[in-house]
Amino acid sequence: MTGPVRQYLTSYSVQLLILFSLMMVALASPAGDGKENPIRTILIGPVHVVLMESGEVTPGQAVITRNGRIDSIISYSEAKDRPGTTLVDGENGYLIPGLAEMHAHIPSQGRGEQYARDILVLYLANGITTARGMLGEPWHLELREKLASQEWMGPRLITSGPSFNGKTVSSPAQAARMVRVQARAGYDFLKLHPGLELEEFEAIADAAHKVKLPFAGHVSFAVGLDAALRQHQASIDHLDSYAQAMVPEGAPLHGEAPSFFGINLAVGMDSNFAPRLAKATAAAGVWNVPTLSLIENLAGERSVETLLARPGMVYVSEDLKQVWINHVNRLREQASWSDRQRFLMLRRTLIQELQAAGAGLLLGSDAPQIMNVPGFSIHEELGFMVGSGLTPLQALQSGTRNVAAFFKEEMQGDVKPAYVADLVLLRSNPLENIAATSDILGVMRAGSWYSREDLDRLLAAIKGRGI
Q: Which residue in 98, 263, 332, 381 is a FRET match for 421, CA 20 to 30 A apart?
């Protein structure tokens, strides 16, 4: 292409871009009658605004959103008679930022469009406005855009590519090529599964650092916690590899391969190792997604009947329930109650030490997985985090403010002007009782409001189909 032709085309492209921008401004501007588009400007009030940074609660507020952002927060008494504004009765509820599911599983395209839509709506109806998909595929790149544009209802999607594991990785060189392929494809991060050799993991990490693509997930047995911290794995999920790191050298179980995240090592784990490991994790800047609900539901003391009676289970098909029942029974047959109890206690101790050391914790439950219904399991996760020693505010921060810090996003994770309008309206104060997060009056995703009636209608349709 010659220089003049290139210059002409560049100039023509700029003119088209300017024209397109002016058209978009016109579409977003007030209509000819001088009124703002009622769909794009919403006032929610009166509400108690709950700030994630400080835990401060400010009553009697009106939160005004415009074009997907929080425009302003003012006293509700000053917010009357605003033309062109859609009013949402805040019912004196408690407004918090949208929650994140940082260990989500997004359905594959092969499961069908309706199934995928149902899973995404289950997340949204439970106040999940960000989902980090931990097992991606090419279709998820398309789905990410559909969710971003709100063509599909659901949380925004942060997606990995296909898994790096013992079956998909055959050599360090092949692993590095796989990293570069996924970087070019546009995935947000890399997902690690078990079965990697240390040399393969090192090749993945080195290549990922070069293309500035985070890697997260499991820590393979041959890799170990020290290497994951040294290579600054973005997040370790399920507290994977901490169990074997807590078995002292010379102990009978030292060097033993873990099963189910180390439950077989429980009798040999030493809680005195937790503070040192937590400090090392903080120093490395590695985050953890504990997925407490997954482990507590499988290994805990609640009966299968109790697990099946939880509210979210009404959306689960009978076939899937039976699959989950079989998993629970098999695990509980493999470990005694005393070993399971010790294992859960040590995980709670580790959570306390990670929090105390300043090692970042992120909210994630691993859903839909065994006994974890999408969305509903996040509220259980919050309860388990509080049960492990976190305050309600710290638990909420793991799904809001911490997530924004993890993704290096300045305008996410709180209820402040200019922040993305991802919001959840609760009936009561979650700082007094973390269970309040499950009593939702409405959800806002990037400025789009879903009332309780809207959510109930969507959920009723899913109940009729079952996931």
A: 381
